[in-house]
Amino acid sequence: MTIMYKALTQHTDQVLKDFIRFTYKVKHPKAKIQLSIMGIGFLLLALFLKDELRMRLVLAGVGLLILVFVLTRHLIVFRRLARKDERYQKKTNIEFKFGQAEFIIADDFEDGERKVKYSEITDIYCDKRNLYLLLNGEELQVMPWQDFTGGSTEEIKRFLILKTKRKIKELYIPFSDRLRRIKAGMKEAEVMHNQKIGEKQNKKE
After folding, report:
1. Same domain, yes or no, for 114 and 165?
2. Using one digit for the tens of pLDDT, what is the confidence trace for 164-194?
């Protein structure tokens, strides 16, 4: 198999943190906002209750606990997984080799290679630090961009889009890019609006 791109990485603490951050961002995108609103709600209730001191203290305590959990949940999950997962305890290597028809995952912890077809990739995500491949809708592989060899970030993205026929979902979009996309969308909407007006005028004539 001709290797087009390779990524040799490790099960590091940073990869585990990014894995956890990805899980919350993609699978539970509203959890942070919902929990924050709940915590603030309890604090407001405690503030507006005038005579019930004990109830005010209970409500304030619950609200503070919720907000503390929101701020520390990533750290709590990280410590729990870091203690249980031997891959991250031993910092084992994992290598990805991308060919034309398939790619190979070689994990030192599993002591062997596994061939994966591009059709098994159900979703592709990326941010400034990593590429994320979701396999068969359940297995997530995290690949830091800095660990790739054989091509640039944009070349690897184009290669995966071509092989999987899927769009890459960006988890982080710079403000300048967001602003540019908004302007492009507004311009497109304006063009379509002008076309509709022109069609109506032509019908009247």
Report:
1. yes
2. 999 999 886 554 555 565 666 677 777 776 7
